[in-house]
Specification:
Elements (H helix, E strand, L loop, with lengths): L4 E7 L3 E7 L5 E8 L5 H19 L5 E8 L2 E2 L4 E2 L13 H9 L3 E4 L1 H12 L8 E6 L3 E7 L2 E2 L32 H4 L1 H14 L16 H9 L3 H25 L3 E5 L7 H14 L9 E4 L4 H14 L7
Length: 322
Amino acid sequence: MSKTYAIGIDMGNTTTSIGIVDTQGNVINKSSISSDYQNITEYIDAIYDHLSALIAQQGEVKNIKGIGLASSESNYFTGCVEFAPDHKWNGNTPITQILTKKLHLPITLTNNANAAAMGEMEYGIAQGMKDFILLSLDNEVSRGTVANGEIVYGHKIFTGKSGHINVHNDRGRACKCGKKDCLEAYCSTDGIVATTLELLASSKEDSILRNIPQNELAFENVYEALLKEDKLAKEVYHFTADLLGQLLSDLVAYSSPRAFILSGKVAKSNEFFRQAINESFEANVLKIYSGKTKILTSNIEDSDAVILGASLLAWNPKLIDA
């Protein structure tokens, strides 16, 4: 008897990761393509071509139960990506309808942070938890909230856009969404780079980061400098951690979660960063919540949490309560 698999797709703003998942939650085959396409048709064609090759490696289309697709600003009810400022093809796109016609497989769409939360709840550090908040800190910042064991979707399913909460920083830093001083403008990988450039300009602190041309500076450079105990890099991360700690102290007052789970490149930096977040959280949180909420780091490989969570929708599309 042939095995049955599900497919999970994480449509990130720079990379689209595709994984084939078995019934036990093992990602048995994974690959990726660029998300950097000017035209949505070309992007969907690239996903289709790549998917077809992966499916062929596992046998036939009949061995695939379905596809779970995760993207920012996606709407489960319409099957559309309705607003995608991180993509060049930004606009209302009926992506599930288009891919279903091409692949002849059932496809379910959800928000990538919600998919990551489902992946953590089923396979990761949140197993056994019924109330937690996942905060993904990567090229973008997003949130998946679980209350009483269920994903919180909100009225129009666009809940979880914590990356576009104003942090009242008064720096006037522009965000890709069109607003200013959004959390994402500070706590994403691009936000880390922007803070570093500001400090390089305003500070006389010696730093190995001064040896890198400003137009070539990347998140990975700042991260490597942090690991080398670079003082300016530590200042960047301490500033970022303080903003995050303040945000978490506000979020805990809304829903009193058992834990915050941090995922993504920024979240998995090192112990210095995690400790700085905890210190900021405890300094800002209402005292009745002090010591009652854990701040944890995801133990699932960065892209796998979204792939695993999205694949769950292929097994059971009604995980989203429509």
